[in-house]
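PROTEIN DESIGN WORKSHEET
SECTION A - STRUCTURE
LENGTH: 607
TOKENS:
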């Protein structure tokens, strides 16, 4: 894009109409080439007058001289009418350099290099015989042999280290697997007691007239509980394994179903699989989400399902009478899945085994549920739980995010009182970058997780990590306090996302008048001001800004919106430095506790 710029060099010769067209084309092209590393571009002439700019500026930038020789781009610095400034994101740029050489650090006393034809800078040779974008390093043969020997030695050492790590990893996995099996067995025993105490199947048979209503249910939890019950039911079969396969896509699946019917459907289909296997083999349940559907597949090797039965299952007019339990269970499942807006597919192949795929629409997650855990760079994650296993799981989950360039720290507490004491004593904490993951129940203390969060007074930065999400009373409390929950038994699957550090510009202006924007820009100089004509665009970007950023909002906005009303919503999002920028006198407005001040439309740096 920079090489083919002969038209830019002739910019001063064009008429106004052609200049305007060229400006639009250049701004479009530059925006298309604006990557994460590049914040913006600016073109100025030799009189230091800005011609075109797009994006944001930064201290780290590259200045390219566009030099003209007989109307064409030239490396000869004879006539250089224009300069292109390429503004670079310092954090991303420095982090990418560190991936090449971790010892690289920012130099605060260095001056800019001038790179011209015939100049050699740090191994970069620029002369007329070579493309200026290539690097040439001069290494003699003797040095190359030594270097190869050192590299080979390092690779050999690394090979032994990796071998040792692999052995240790296998040992750790063995003990973790044993622990998981033990925990699974405990859960199976508990569910067996539940099964004996309250049998939904018998209840439903006695109450066939009862029409169960549809409700939004946490599918991952229902399937997990059902698998435990079925393991307990078939514990007499030593060679039978019923396994649930979960992954990141299995987390957070909700659907509108009839929970008792759901339980009965899957219980019957697992019974089909057990009968097919004669109590000997493996049954896999795989829970997944595809677009707007919840999908559960039941896979097992066993007796092949005859084609006649598969065709009968496909037939929408098929009835239950005089059918085997195998067919009845499939038809019952199909009937209710279609009632929920879903579908049943059955496949049977001698090489691949039997598979039943059940799909039904996903529902919107309830407000108490944490869909994704978002972490900011330079943040501190505080885990509060009496269970060491949960601390270890969080350590494992967050391991990939403990890179130096993310600067994320983890603190562990098992005593809730010590957390409150630590928070009280740490006077220089940046509360915007704190994230609390707190258990609900603490056996040895007269307080619960909600009490801890309310004492911290950081509800928006805190989450309950508990299996009490089926407790209606607790859910009502959490929703009234706007505190969300992460199910503890699905901590290993909750999606994590790293967010860039929050920006803190000098000010944010929300005003629909072009003249006011121009007035601010004319006197802003190097101040980082963010301009918004539309409130919706600001709301979309709001999470990217530090909550202490000053916001100046007009009283009369587009579509009849009032700035004093919108500013209350902005205040509730956490912004505290909000000013009403208006031509009206302050006496015109009622008292507004969320507004820090009422002022004119002139920029705040002009008295």
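SECTION B - SEQUENCE
RESIDUE ASSIGNMENT:
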């Amino acid at each position: 894009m920079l090489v083919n710029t002969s038209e830019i060099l002739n910019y001063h010769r064009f008429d106004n109409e052609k200049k305007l067209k060229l400006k639009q084309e250049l701004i479009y092209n530059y925006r298309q080439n604006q990557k994460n590393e590049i914040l913006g571009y600016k073109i100025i002439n030799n009189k230091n007058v800005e011609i075109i700019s797009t994006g944001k500026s930064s201290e780290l930038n590259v200045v390219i001289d566009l030099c003209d020789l007989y109307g064409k781009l030239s490396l000869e610095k004879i006539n250089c009418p224009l300069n292109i400034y390429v503004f670079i994101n310092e954090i991303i740029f420095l982090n990418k350099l560190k991936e090449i050489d971790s010892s690289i650090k920012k130099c605060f006393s260095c001056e800019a290099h001038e790179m011209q034809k015939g100049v050699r800078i740090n191994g970069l040779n620029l002369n007329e015989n070579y493309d200026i974008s290539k690097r040439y390093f001069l290494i003699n043969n003797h040095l190359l042999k030594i270097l190869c020997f050192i590299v080979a030695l390092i690779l050999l050492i690394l090979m032994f280290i990796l071998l040792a790590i692999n052995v240790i990893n296998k040992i750790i996995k063995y003990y973790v697997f044993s622990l998981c099996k033990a925990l699974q067995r405990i859960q199976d025993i508990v569910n067996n007691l539940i099964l004996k105490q309250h049998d939904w199947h018998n209840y439903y048979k006695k109450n066939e007239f009862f029409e169960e209503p549809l409700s939004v249910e946490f599918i991952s939890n229902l399937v997990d509980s059902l698998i435990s019950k079925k393991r307990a039911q078939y514990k007499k079969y030593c060679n039978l394994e019923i396994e649930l396969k979960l992954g990141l896509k299995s987390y957070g699946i909700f659907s509108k179903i009839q929970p008792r019917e759901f339980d009965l459907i899957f219980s019957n289909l697992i019974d089909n699989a057990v009968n097919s296997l004669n109590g000997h083999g493996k049954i896999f349940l795989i829970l997944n989400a595809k677009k707007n559907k919840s999908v559960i597949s039941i896979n097992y090797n066993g007796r092949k399902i005859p084609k006649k039965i598969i065709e009968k299952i496909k037939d929408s007019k098929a009835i239950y009478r005089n059918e085997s339990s195998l067919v009845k269970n499939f038809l019952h499942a199909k009937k209710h899945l279609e009632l929920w807006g879903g579908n049943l597919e059955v496949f049977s192949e001698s090489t691949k085994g039997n598979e039943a795929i059940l799909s039904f629409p996903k529902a919107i997650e309830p407000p108490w549920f944490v869909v994704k855990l978002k972490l900011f760079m330079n943040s501190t994650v505080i885990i509060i739980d009496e269970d060491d296993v949960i601390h270890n799981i969080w350590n494992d989950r967050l391991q990939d995010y403990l890179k130096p360039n993310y600067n994320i720290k983890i603190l562990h507490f098992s005593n809730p009182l010590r957390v409150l004491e630590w928070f009280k004593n740490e006077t220089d904490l940046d509360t915007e970058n704190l994230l609390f993951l707190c258990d609900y129940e603490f056996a040895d203390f007269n307080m619960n997780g909600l009490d801890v969060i309310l004492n911290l007074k950081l509800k928006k930065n805190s989450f309950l990590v508990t299996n009490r999400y089926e407790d209606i009373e607790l859910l009502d409390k959490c929703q009234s306090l706007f505190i969300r929950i992460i199910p503890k038994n699905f901590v290993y699957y909750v999606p994590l996302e790293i967010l860039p550090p929050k920006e803190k510009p000098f000010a944010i202006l929300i005003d629909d008048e072009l003249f006011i924007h121009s007035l601010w820009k004319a006197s802003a100089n190097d101040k980082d001001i963010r301009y918004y004509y539309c409130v919706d665009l600001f709301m979309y970007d709001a999470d990217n800004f530090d909550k202490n950023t000053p916001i100046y909002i007009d009283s009369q906005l587009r579509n009849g919106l009032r700035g004093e009303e919108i500013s209350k919503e902005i205040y509730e999002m956490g912004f505290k430095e909000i000013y009403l920028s208006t031509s009206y006198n302050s006496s015109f407005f009622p008292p507004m506790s969320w507004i820090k001040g009422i002022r004119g439309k002139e920029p705040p740096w002009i008295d």
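SECTION C - NOTES
DSSP finds 16 helices and 26 strands in the chain.
The two ends are 44 Å apart (CA to CA).
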